[in-house]
Amino acid sequence: MTKDCHEGGGREIRRVPGYLAIIAGKDEYLVDRDGRACFEKARKAAGADAEAEVISGQILRVDDARMLELQFAESVKTVSMFGGKRVIWLRNFNLVTDTVQAKSEEVKLSLKNMLEMATGADESVAVIISATPYDGRRKDLANLKSVAHDFILHASPSKGPFDKGDAQADAQVALAAERFKALGVKYERGVPEVIVGRVGQSTRLVLGECDKLATYVGPGGTVKEADVHLLVPTFGEGDFFEPIEALAARDLKWGLESLDRYFFNEDSSRPLLAALQNRLRLLIQIRCLVDSGDFRLGPEGLPKGQFEAASGRHGPTFGSAAKSSANLFSQNAWYVSNKVAPAAARFTLAELVDLQLACADCFDASNRGADESSVRAMFLRALAVKRPA
Predict the structure, then answer these.
(1) What is the tens place of the pLDDT at every residue in 28-75?
(2) Out of 3.90.70.10, 1.20.120.1810, 1.10.8.60, 1.20.1070.10, which CATH number does the structure's domain 167-240 have?
(3) What are 319-339's pLDDT values in tens digits?
């Protein structure tokens, strides 16, 4: 088999192996999962007599790159004594990362040589390269896309949860739902999304937290959103605060307990208040649209498609599409419909406005060092008594 292509630098590749797969991304779990799938695919295609080898592609020092290059060269160029096929998986390849070692000229040379060996291997050889973590600015692997039989590049996770177009988050939500099903537990609507919002920088962590929650509720149990906030720590860029979810649920007991946990770890109420104000801005807009008849709101949020329909009617009125809590229609549709909107059914517009004003009072109290007492008083006023419409 021969293929012709040109890299960015103009060098022509005239031959590729019988099978070449390249998988890259920052999420080690997803890259390794797809790398293993390609490895098993190549082994099956090569037949029962094929020789299969897994090579660790990780280096710790610059000098390790040369040793890895020699090991890979020996594997690629070794011909089977009985004429069978060979399948080689270069696993956890980290010569294309954003590290000091990967940027060195010695490592770059070894990388160049190894990729030339991979693309120039005999037709009886299958090569799988799974690279993680991967620096998306590097073009070494991307230049081989046209000659690879399988090329999988996993997008980096969004910096914030529920950003629009987050393919990794969508995949992780599906994996979390599958894991719960396999473990024999049920979950409240939105639980997989909340887990991903807290630890979505790592798929392995997402699935690990699913296992932990399933153990907590037991076989046949139901995982609640409150369980996620109680047991799952925020990781990476996650910025969810349990007290906000308790307030949105209009649950006084949960709210006060969540404040105990928050102020056990934090001295300042300002991060919590800033996040609460952002949530309240969205809730006020939702409540206004509900009261005007533009939204039909149920206990579980907005029916599917209703947010998109209202966005078409009112989006231009709300201004710029840049993501902002001041513009409801700049938010992720799932996040608004399923995560934010249910709280709007539990509060009147007057109550939401009162809470927004109370946040400003709490900021003033923070200047006097009364962070915890002022926030507790706000929660008690909001949750202990329901104000008439």
Answers:
(1) 999 999 999 999 999 999 888 889 999 999 999 999 999 999 999 999
(2) 1.10.8.60
(3) 666 677 778 888 888 888 888
Half-sphere exposure of 318 (CA within 13 A, CB side): 23
Which option is the CATH number for 5-153: 2.60.40, 3.40.50, 3.30.360, 3.10.20? 3.40.50
Predicted model pTM? 0.65
Spatial separation of the C-alpha atoms in residues 383 and 389, rounded to whole Å: 15
* Cα–chain center distance at 369: 37
In the prediction, which pLDDT does 320 show? 61
Please say if the pLDDT value at position 7 is more than 50.
no
User: Residue 337 is encoded by which pair of tokens?
Assistant: 């419909």
Residue 52 β-bridge partners: 87
How many residues are there in the chain? 389
CA nearest to 95, candidates 53, 54, 145, 61: 61
> Does residue 314 surpass a pLDDT of 80?
no
Question: Apex CA 154: angle with CA 149 and CA 159, to 5°?
Answer: 165
d(CA 371, CA 376): 9
11 Cβ partners below 8 Å, 6+ apart? none
Distance CA 131, CA 142 (A): 12
d(CA 389, CA 20): 65
**Domain boundaries of the chain, sorted by first residue:** 5-153, 167-240, 265-384
- For 329, the token pair is 């229609």
Cα separation of 304 and 189, whole Å? 13
* The predicted structure's pLDDT at residue 9: 42
Residue with tokens 């007991």: 253
How buried is 278 (Cβ within 10 angstroms: 0-12 exposed, 13-18 middle, 19+ buried)?
A: middle
Whose tokens are 């309240």? That residue is 280
How confident is the model over 135-176, as pLDDT tens digits? 888 899 999 999 999 999 987 665 555 555 567 778 888 899
Mean predicted lDDT score pLDDT of the chain: 85
Q: DSSP states of 181-231 as a string?
A: HHHT-EE-TTHHHHHHHHHTT-HHHHHHHHHHHHHHH-TT-EE-HHHHHHH
Whether 167-240 and 5-153 are alike in CATH topology: the answer is: no
Helix H or strand E encompassing 28:
helix 28-46
Select from 6, 10, 32, 19 the least CA-distant residue to 144.
6
